[in-house]
Specification:
- It holds the Pfam family ACR_tran.
- The chain has three domains: 107 residues, Multidrug efflux transporter AcrB pore domain like (Alpha-Beta Plaits), CATH 3.30.70; 88 residues, Multidrug efflux transporter AcrB TolC docking domain, DN and DC subdomains; 72 residues.
- Strands 1, 2, 9, 10 and 13 form a five-stranded antiparallel β-sheet that branches. The chain has a two-stranded antiparallel ribbon with strand order 3-8.
- The protein has 317 residues and is of the alpha+beta class.
- Helices cover 50% and strands 22% of the residues.
Amino acid sequence: MEGAEIEYLLQETALKAAFGEEAPITVEVKGYNLAALREISSRLQARIATIPGIYGVKSSLIPPSPETKAHILKDRASLYNLSARDIALTVQVALKGYVATKFKEEGEEIDIRVRLRPQDRADLAKLREILIHSPLGMEVPLSQVAYLSKGVGPTEIKRLDQERVVLISANIFRRGLSDVAEEVNGAIEEIKDQQTGFGKGVPPGYSVRLGGESQRMEESFKSLRFALILAILLVYMIMAAQFESLWQPFIIIFTVPLSLIGVSLALAITHTSLNVVVMLGVIMLGGIVVNNGIVMIDYVNLLRAKGVGIREAVIGA
């Protein structure tokens, strides 16, 4: 099509996925009820997908899959001296199997897994006939100590700080991380204010917060801000000792903010957002500006010592 512009994005590499690298944007939704987590995360996922510069929005919540549930009859199990672990282990071996031995072929070991045939694993009647060895020396059918049923359930349940969590991840394109993170925080606040079938957008006992690279960037900013303040304080103390004056170092320190004018202009022209690299550059630039100020003040003091007036000394420097 004439005049059309086509853009493409490379998929994440296998190496990056293997190391589990976090996405630039990651939102953590915590709570105890899986249905409520699914409802909150689905609305949040749809809202985040509308933010410009975001693509590849994914949720860690996997759709429920078919499963066989075993409801243990504790009273009957205790009669045969069987624990819940004994029963669960027997069912797990029957359905998932266990590695009985290994077969070596051309220097490669291959696991040999023993379990029920597929048609038997799908048949509840066959599963109920599984025999469990009791510590009393008896072989007890599974149907005597547990009730089996078919249903659906989560494939995995992620937990963070002892709470169930759903992670919503997204990548960014042609926008700064800080700008996108600010809009994502706005989207989170919108979701919190919405009314749903569970009450307020985020009911009591649930939490939604931004994580991933944006969280690490915010933590880095805090560390860099502290480093910047500490650096200015140490530089002032050193200059005060060098010039044997308390006000001359102030003159040098006050030249540092003036350098930020050029930094702001450069960021605006290049459409670059404030990030960790920029902050490191500002700290380095501050050191250069301070060094230049030290040379100028030292030269002014030299001219003053020769009897030159302060106005002429400043102009001469």
